[in-house]
Specification:
Elements lengths: L19 E2 L5 E2 L19 E4 L17 H6 L4 E10 L5 E7 L2 E6 L13 E2 H11 L5 E7 L6 H13 L22 H4 L3 E7 L18 E5 L17 E4 L6 H17 L7 E6 L11 H20 L14 E4 L4 H13 L4
Parallel strand pairs: 3-4, 3-13, 4-8, 6-7, 8-9, 9-10, 11-12, 12-13
Antiparallel strand pairs: 1-2, 4-5, 5-6
Protein name: 1-phosphatidylinositol phosphodiesterase
Organism: Corallococcus soli
EC number: 4.6.1.13
């Protein structure tokens, strides 16, 4: 089944909160900052600002963001952590509610498949497609994970691809022009104007291979990234060329030590490296009220800004290719942090 835009997508995007400048000092609109990057740029070499638990704005101890998806997109965020709960409606069709643990986030994956109430505030797929229709040189990376009521992979994918396939001919474009059809890390020119789905596993069902989302029809599979993943010594069930820092319950000083060490490793990787580096600058020790996600963000983000600023000032004689920080996933990202990551991407020398 195919359909055109029904008008149920989010309202017009809000104006961006800040501007960035390119290497020539010219202003860059954060809604369109990727338009200044070359098509040859391998996505794993672009410094990409992202958000952890991107839709989580409700629930005691579960709030990780204070901006909705459309605002995050307008402000330059390009990687989103989306947690989906499988729900079957009275007509038998399946849609996905967005959750953080048990907390419903007043969001659904799609507006066309129904199953949501009048309290739904966000439709992930709608907002992303609308943004890309208006900003054709950008790309959006969606990390897709099951959260609550986890289904076997065949059941999950059957529902998921039905929903995605239903958007064929959205805005007059075939599905392959809307969603990346490959299954390997793309260059930017291959994903402009498209969503790149990256599937990750959670702990539920982790011991049963039938629950692993490791055979997507399109997009990438990263396995379980709820832990540290070392590209040099991956676990038996882990994909290769992926390097992740995700110690999400360490005390604050220990978390920053691991974050900065992982960012340093990313920074020191040469321009020919193929590993995808992902650093989660997010943590929580809920129900400890002094270690909620906001408390961690208030502690970690100022240090992150200082660290990024220092690395961006390293002379080109030492790092001729420029600064690279990989994907940086954050709670409550500040405009200054987004700005620094965009600056790194704009000044990097891509092979």
């Amino acid at each position: 089944m195919s359909t055109h835009d029904t008008g149920t997508a989010a309202a017009a995007l809000p104006p961006p909160e800040h501007d960035d400048t390119n290497a020539n000092g010219l202003p860059i609109d954060p809604r369109r900052w990727m338009s200044s990057l070359p098509d040859r740029a391998l996505l794993s070499r672009i410094s990409l600002p992202g958000t952890h638990d991107s839709i989580a704005r409700y629930g005691y101890g579960s709030i990780c963001q204070d901006q909705d998806l459309a605002t995050q997109l307008a402000n330059g965020i390009r990687v989103f952590d989306i947690r989906l709960r499988y729900l079957k409606g009275p007509d038998g069709r399946v849609n996905f509610a967005v959750h953080h643990s048990n907390y419903y986030q007043y969001a659904f994956f799609d507006s066309l498949y129904g199953g949501y109430g009048s309290d739904c505030k966000t439709f992930v797929l709608d907002d992303c497609l609308k943004f890309l229709a208006e900003n054709k040189q950008e790309t959006i990376v969606l990390l897709i994970k099951q959260e609550k009521d986890v289904q076997k992979a065949l059941v999950f994918f059957d529902a998921f691809w039905n929903i995605v396939g239903n958007r064929d001919q959205y805005n007059g474009k075939p599905l392959d022009a809307l969603v990346y059809a490959g299954r390997s890390v793309p260059r930017l020119g291959d994903v402009r104007g498209k969503i790149l789905f990256v599937f990750v596993d959670g702990d539920e069902g982790k011991d049963d291979p039938e629950y692993k989302l490791n055979n997507p029809a399109r997009g990438l599979y990263w396995g379980n990234i709820d832990y540290m993943v070392d590209a040099l010594s991956p676990r038996p069930d882990q994909v290769t060329e992926l390097d992740v820092e995700n110690h999400y319950s360490d005390i604050m000083s220990a978390k920053w030590t691991k974050v900065s060490a992982h960012l340093q490793k990313t920074f020191e990787s040469g321009p020919g490296a193929t590993n995808q580096y992902v650093t989660f600058v997010s943590a929580s020790r809920t129900p400890d009220v002094t270690h909620f996600p906001r408390s961690y963000a208030d502690y970690l983000l100022p240090q992150l800004d200082a660290w990024l600023s220092t690395q961006l000032q390293v002379p080109r004689s030492k790092v001729p290719w420029g600064a690279h920080f990989g994907i940086v996933m954050m709670d409550f990202p500040t405009t200054s942090t987004i700005h620094l990551l965009i600056q790194a991407s704009l000044s990097y020398q891509y092979v």
